[in-house]
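quick one before i forget lol
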Amino acid sequence: MSYPSPRYFAEQGEVSATFRTADAEPELNIGGASRVSLLSTGGTTDGLYGLYRWDMLPGKPQTTTSSGHYHRTFSESFFILDGSVALYDGATWREANAGDYLFVPPGGVHSFANTSGEAASMLVLFAPGAPREPYFEELAEIRNAGRVLSPEEWTEFYARHDQFMT
């Protein structure tokens, strides 16, 4: 393994970092169950990665009946910050706690759920930086409006966003 090809060619470094305060409001509220902070998007990282903070609010515990999904074009990683989150690695559901980590390569089946019903937080990393914001924005609109999609509509929605259910 070697370093990737250079992406910056100037003779000197530049001031180009971005900073986000801890009290910044999350960009998305998904069905009153999750608040999502778009820390870095594929657009802001020039396609290198996307990093979100996913805060699950206290409420009705979710079930782990999902058989998961996979993506063809990007990997996804989950790092638990606080609380307990059920993570699915394609074979096993397990309760993950602060400090636990799951890496899922392209094609890897996975899912997550807040089975405790208590508050929990995790970081979600997409690499390369796929355009996941439209997926989550549309999902938030569907959940927040109480829309009910048919199985065919869900399949089309998922396929548009490189998400394939198993």
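fyi The two ends are 32 Å apart (CA to CA).
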